[in-house]
């Protein structure tokens, strides 16, 4: 989550230079190699810059002959890891169809099902399918597909943790109390490892547990403005500081 | 906007073919127009310049130049001391007139690009000492982006290109090059320091908005205001490229919740909000889009009568209709009806009430409607890259639009079951997952995923990385029960108290002033 994920690692020199380039001189074909190198650095140092990556995709859009499918795939994986931010869609908006050699055929099944039939680079097809599963909270299908596509995903360290963080985010805005089985499926962890995982979050993230009627375990998320209506109301009644400053002379 | 007869060059030989256009023939009204305009510009009479630019130019065009270009710049230059800058300005109007009434040739497109380059370079060098009306400065940026869009569309239609045209395209590959366009806009923003000016204005250290951008201390408003409007130009270009996120970033220094220089010209106001709303729609920031469309549509409703005579009237009406379509689409995905003002709502129901009902069914017919409205209202997306002239000649001018449409429909498809959930949530205050699943004819596991999708889709991430809710009907899940939260408008106690405090203070001040005998 979040635009510029640093995972508590200090910004490298390269990242600082690239950020400068992107903000000062973004419409410049010469910075393309720097941006490509920066993608690789983001992958290896587990950092993320959506601005720099969008800048690169833009340059690819201006000069499609210079596009590297490998770099684009990495950008897309990093974008998936940024969910719930819409970065993956932002990237797709910038990748011309003829470059991806796609022929989108949406086969509409009734109700919930949907198949995307296309002829395109296998990795892009896989990533779009994975994104679809995540966007529609179909975590079981996501982890199944991810397991099959390990060879594509393992180039980017931290992928699994990032998706688990996203899954927890979605659960915590929808649920006050979630059954253990639902959590397990969402983050693809079971058994003792899941116990440890839950312990960790009880200590560090304010989770709690209780038993439900079926003797299953319920995980209780801390209340936030999205899963607790009471909290939302108080947020909405706030007054912006600028308005208070207008009456300070009167009160003073 | 296309006429039937393209002209080969503004410098064509005396007495052209069919319609007898003579670029060197200068009617008296044109002569006095340029002489007058030149003097007003030298004397910095902004009001007069505006009158001439907006009214005189139009009426002369209507009388003499309905479907022919104005006289060539060489023919009028003698009347204005061959002033270099005035000639650039004249040519800018000349080309704009051409694009509006006729169909430009490739050579003319390239010449217009050259003119803009020269004009912007003069401005960027800071040697311009004029005050021009905001309307004109906005039109320059707006037309610049429009001609870029037009060029990309033109270039992408390779099928019927002649050898000559292809040769010209290859030769002048810098003309309307996407890097060039973006860099000029960016340069205007930077050189004018407009971002810093707006920042400092917030702290009271600068005057810009208060004077509508005009410089009352003897300087020039041209660079500053062009820089300001270029931010909106960048928003527009980025939307045309499908880069909504960057587009919104470009407009960030402008506070669109307030009046500003962008509202001083109706065209700029509408263009800003149209693209801002569209970008937010594509980024799933539905509430924000609804809010802004609502405001501008109300504004247009109240003020369009004042623009009936203006040359922008048709454009205003067109954008008005397009924004109603976008609002209809946004509300079908996120029915936050309480954000829509009554006047706008009744107009909306009149135009799209029936279609909105059908769109919320999310069946095949609904998708056709989403397609129809999106296609009608979306910007004219472009492919910025030059074609490979060696490949077989095909038309690919629709590619960019088709991609954006597909991605949009893809998003709509993902939200298909949400409207069903909404119906039930509006009826129940609590309902078990089992019961809800049976009503929706899905299994419980699927229902859980649908509910989570609903939550995910109805929240967006703002520029600080914070989660923002767009939820209309809110709910949360407790194990296997769904609890629906009634969304009441919160009582604005704070607001009420503030107003009373100010009022009381006013009364006390008044009483203090009363002198008792």
UniProtKB/TrEMBL annotation, chain A:
Gene Ontology BP terms: formation of cytoplasmic translation initiation complex; regulation of translational initiation
Tagged with keyword Protein biosynthesis: yes
Assembly mode: Component of the eukaryotic translation initiation factor 3 (eIF-3) complex.
Main location as per UniProt: cytoplasm
Subcellular location: Cytoplasm
Sorted UniProt keywords: Cytoplasm, Initiation factor, Protein biosynthesis
SUPFAM superfamilies: ARM repeat, Winged helix' DNA-binding domain
InterPro entries linked: ARM-type_fold, CSN8_PSD8_EIF3K, eIF3k, PCI_dom, Transl_init_fac_sub12_N_euk, WH-like_DNA-bd_sf, WH_DNA-bd_sf
Native species: Salvia splendens
The protein's name: Eukaryotic translation initiation factor 3 subunit K
Domain called PCI: residue spans: 48-226
Function: Component of the eukaryotic translation initiation factor 3 (eIF-3) complex, which is involved in protein synthesis of a specialized repertoire of mRNAs and, together with other initiation factors, stimulates binding of mRNA and methionyl-tRNAi to the 40S ribosome. The eIF-3 complex specifically targets and initiates translation of a subset of mRNAs involved in cell proliferation.
Source taxonomy: Eukaryota, Viridiplantae, Streptophyta, Embryophyta, Tracheophyta
